[in-house]
């Protein structure tokens, strides 16, 4: 092709490339400025013990308060932030905000449980990740014992040795580690016995069609049994109905998170929601 119409193809290639690059770089620039301009906010979603109904944790979920586009879901920018490594400064910013909120809630005696924070594998693989979060944590004065880091199975796939060292160090410092979206990754199960884990979060896709779907019944039961055997807590994500909740209780699941109890909300909204209930 390039041989028959060199110029034409080259020009076509160039123009589609530049167009692509321009779109990307505008987005990347926006993202970079958004970090500098403090346009990111955190919403929080309670995690509930299925037996006591007590709130055991709050998961911090980032949103981008875009000046033009409005409130953007993390699905619109996390992947690109990972590709450009902007997730490193953004991730630290999220960590700091979440800890500041946890500290306020502890001081007000409003909530003393676990603050759960999503950590990208790009962050886990970053050389000085632990140093950086530890500096923030010590400054804000929140115990590592009340922090849970949510990682995904893919975090162990690029460099299993290094990631497991990092997780081991985090565990030694008192952090809890949970596996988010469990069951959707392509990693082997052997890492489960090697890593210092506390919790498996059953991915929402396996909960959605419960209790009706036979396959999802089998998968969620198997994950709960696996968690029990390995002495890990099991939390179900995306619980929306009483029927799903009943199924999970009947099958020995420990905890849940989902719209049935509460959607992710701003700290303020969550405070008034919990005061009313
Ligand atoms: P995730 O960590 O698995 O978070 C759960 C997602 O499910 C959240 O979407 C939450 O709003 C949604 N969800 C919770 N309960 C229900 C329910 O009952 N039904 C339905 N349909 N959805 C429910 P969200 O907030 O849009 O976050 C999407 C993903 O973006 C997260 O999935 C996580 O992978 C990523 N993410 C969010 N915040 C951060 C962050 O601070 N850092 C990083 N690295 N990733 C983040
Ligand atoms: Mg999560
Ligand atoms: Mg998840
Ligand atoms: Mg999920």
Written overview of the protein:
There is one protein chain. Strand 2 and strand 3 form a beta hairpin. Strands 1-2-4-5-6-7-8-9 form an eight-stranded mixed beta barrel. The protein contains eleven helices and nine strands. It is of the alpha/beta class.
Characteristics:
277 residues, alpha/beta, eight-stranded mixed β-barrel, 11 helices, 9 strands, binds ligand C2E, binds magnesium ion, Diguanylate cyclase
Helix/strand/pairing category? alpha/beta
Major sheet attributes: 8 strands, mixed, barrel
Order of helices and strands: HEEEHHEHHEHEHEHHEHEH
- What portion of residues is helical? 40-55%
Q: What overall form do the CA principal axes indicate?
A: globular
What is the typical, i.e. mean, pLDDT? 91
Number of strands: 9
Radius of gyration: 21 Å
Low-confidence stretches: none
Protein name: Diguanylate cyclase
Domain EAL: 24-277
Topology:
Elements: H1 6-36, E1 40-49, E2 55-66, E3 70-72, H2 78-83, H3 87-107, E4 114-118, H4 121-124, H5 129-140, E5 147-152, H6 160-173, E6 176-182, H7 191-194, E7 199-202, H8 204-207, H9 214-229, E8 233-236, H10 242-250, E9 255-256, H11 267-276
Parallel strand pairs: 2-4, 4-5, 5-6, 6-7, 7-8, 8-9
Antiparallel strand pairs: 1-2, 1-9, 2-3
Helix pairs in contact: 3-5
Bound molecules: ligand C2E and magnesium ion (3 copies).
Short description:
The chain contains eleven helices and nine strands. It has 277 residues and is an alpha/beta fold.
């Amino acid at each position: 092709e390039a041989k028959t119409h060199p110029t034409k193809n080259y020009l076509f290639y160039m123009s589609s490339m530049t167009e692509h690059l321009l779109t990307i770089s505008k987005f990347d620039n926006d993202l970079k400025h958004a970090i500098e301009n403090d346009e990111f906010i955190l919403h929080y979603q309670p995690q509930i013990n299925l037996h006591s109904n007590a709130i055991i944790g709050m998961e911090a979920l980032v949103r981008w308060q875009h000046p033009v586009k409005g409130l953007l879901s993390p699905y619109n920018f996390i992947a690109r932030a990972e590709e450009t490594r902007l997730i490193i400064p953004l991730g630290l910013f999220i960590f700091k905000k979440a800890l500041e909120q946890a500290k306020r809630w502890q001081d007000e005696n409003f909530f003393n449980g676990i603050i759960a924070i999503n950590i990208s594998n790009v962050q886990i693989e970053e050389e000085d990740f632990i140093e950086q979060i530890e500096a923030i944590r010590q400054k804000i004065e929140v115990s590592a014992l009340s922090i849970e880091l949510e990682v995904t199975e893919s975090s162990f796939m690029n460099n299993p040795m290094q990631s497991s060292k990092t997780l081991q160090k985090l565990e030694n410092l008192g952090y809890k580690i949970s596996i988010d979206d469990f069951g959707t990754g392509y990693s082997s199960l052997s890492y489960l016995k090697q890593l210092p884990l506390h919790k498996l979060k059953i991915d929402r896709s396996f909960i959605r069609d419960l209790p009706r779907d036979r396959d999802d019944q089998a998968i969620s039961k198997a994950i709960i049994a696996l968690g029990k055997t390995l002495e890990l807590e099991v939390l179900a994500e995306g619980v929306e109905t009483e029927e799903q909740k009943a199924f999970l209780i009947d099958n020995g699941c420990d905890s849940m998170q989902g719209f049935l109890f509460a959607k992710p909300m701003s700290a303020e909204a969550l405070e008034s929601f919990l005061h009313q209930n």
